[in-house]
Design goal:
Blueprint: H1 2-13, H2 16-39, H3 46-55, H4 59-77, H5 80-86, H6 90-126, H7 134-162, H8 165-186, H9 195-203, H10 215-239
């Protein structure tokens, strides 16, 4: 399994898709943070700082898309046949991709969180903003990192299940921007279990009037979703002709 994961990570390092999405995530988050700090003169309270740092958790969405693209990419490019020749066990093949995407998302999260910290905290201190306690700051930043890692893993499982990159990305975007808000608006206390609700919980954000789960519970629910899609990907991959 270790060699399989290392092989998947090598694909990340040698493909432009990974670097493109990782760079886009970093650039987008830094742009949001810098513009907010430069334009908004009312970042004074702890809640303002929490909201700014939790907004940076948007890179979890980029990690989710990365996972979908990576998971379905082998089917698009036909390299899945070689992968299954080397590793006929479907569970190991699918699981290796999921673990590799988890590690890739984790790396993206660490880099983005570190850059946000290096830019935002000194700037906020210079603006005399009231910073939350160190423990709360770490919880927000590390929660965002965990969100990115779990999002990439879920995306990989979903991509391997669907096998179509474009359809997978479109479905994910529709779920997050259309289906999740509708569910949250119509079904009380269900929105916290949607992908959006779980992402907000892990990145330390505020979901308005909708409750959010504790970070650990949200991560566990997301991991269960990932396990479910991984199992489905293994089952359907075993029944398909490659």
């Amino acid at each position: 399994m270790i060699n399989l994961v290392l092989a998947e990570l090598l694909k990340f390092r040698t493909t432009r898709t990974f670097w493109g999405l990782a760079g886009s995530a970093l650039g987008l988050v830094l742009l949001i943070v810098i513009l907010t700090l430069a334009i908004d003169d009312h970042l004074n309270t702890e809640q303002d700082v929490r909201d700014l740092l939790s907004t940076a958790g948007i890179y979890g969405l980029m990690a989710l898309i990365l996972g979908v693209v990576a998971g379905a990419g082998e089917y698009r490019h036909g390299t899945i046949a070689w992968t299954l020749l080397v590793t006929p066990n479907r569970l190991r093949a699918v699981g290796g991709g999921v673990i590799a995407c988890f590690l890739g998302g984790l790396a993206i999260g660490v880099v983005v969180a570190s850059c946000v910290t290096a830019v935002a905290l000194p700037w906020l201190s210079a603006k005399d903003a009231v910073l939350p306690p160190t423990g709360d700051l770490l919880k927000i930043l590390l929660g965002g990192v965990l969100y990115a890692a779990l999002a990439a893993a879920l995306g990989s499982a979903f991509g391997q299940l669907l096998r179509n990159q474009v359809a997978g990305v479109v479905i994910v975007l529709v779920l997050i921007f259309v289906v999740d808000p509708v569910i949250a608006g119509l079904l009380e206390n269900v929105g916290q279990f949607t992908l959006t609700g779980l992402g907000i919980a892990m990145s330390g954000g505020d979901n308005g009037d909708t409750n959010v789960l504790p970070l650990g519970v949200a991560a566990l629910v997301w991991a269960l979703y990932t396990a479910l899609f991984t199992a489905l990907a293994v089952i359907f991959t075993s029944r398909r002709d490659i």
